[in-house]
Structure prediction request, 370 residues.
Amino acid sequence: MVNASGPTGGKIKRPSDGKIPQAVAFIKCVGSRDDVKGRSYCSRACCMYTAKHAMQVVEKIPDSDAYVFYMDVRTAGKGYEEFYQRSVNAGAQYIRGRVSKIYPHGDRLVVKSEDTLLGKPIEVEVDMVVLATAMVPAAGSADMAKLVGFSIDKDGFFQEAHPKLQPVETFTGGVYLAGSCQGPKDIPDTVAQASAAAVKVAALFSKDKLATEPMIAQVDETKCTGCEFCIPICPYQAISMKPLKTRVHSHTVERQVATVNKGLCQGCGACVAACRPCALNLNGFTNDQIVSEVDALCL
Amino acid sequence: MSVETSKGWEPKIVAFACNWCSYAGGDLAGLNRLQYPSNVRIIRVPCSGRIDPQFVLRAFMMGADGVLVSG
Prediction:
């Protein structure tokens, strides 16, 4: 709205009738930080943009009032607290309390709340109310996650592989996260995460050879009967058959045995559980190792 | 092999947890300093598909009161 090339030509106007508001109320944490609404998280960026909007109202409209109804002012970031103080010094009035009701009065609106710092109810008459609503995942992001094959968290944001050690990776190899698809974020944080994701991709391409996990399935060719039971089981199409020549009673016999493509195998071990002659085993999670774990834990 | 506590008898449960979801969930619980009962003994597996029915039978054979397969 304050953009000179915007819909109102740089003037702050009410969307309903185009009147210039003399008093504006900003309400923070609308639909966020509220278990009843199902969103317990903090949307993180709204404290700062509300401070910016309140300051713009006070500076652009002469003799105007800006009221900010807040739960907490969260200014974690470089220079953020100073910016918030600037908006307070510019004349934005911060009122700590949750708004209980907004009702029309003539062509104005009355905002009913409580000032928890003064410990008494408060009513202000304003021309416009601006809500700082919860940042929510984009519509269709769940379908997108299903398509690419990564998980979403309880709030619908994409789940990173590890909250501290792998904040841009997903569980799907080669897919990285940047920005508010992973959680509410402001622009500096999004740029930082996107830069990290870009470097991760560049690191992937900088090598001639791709290092894979050592935990992959291995075939004991002497035990494999060539039943091909493992081929449809493998979700990564990593198993195929190959001919194997063996000497049996001074004759050369050719038979088919399973072979695992080391690049495709992701080490899930589904084939190992399905292998009837126990010819397949998973490095790092062999049958013997898991049975030993079971034995040790049952003591 | 049951756990004897001051509260009386407690079952001992062997949990097979998938590395990518259940085990990651357990890891997240640890990161958030959440407690879970010590009578659940977790075995990390790369995928719930890795679990051979024999592992479950082995756990019962060795005296587990319950087996949790999660993935």
Q: What stands out?
A: The interface with chain B takes residues 151, 163-164, 171, 215, 233, 267-270, 272-273, 282, 284-285, 287, 290-291, 293-295, 297-299 of chain A (CB under 8 Å). Residues 187-206 of chain A form the longest helix (20 residues).
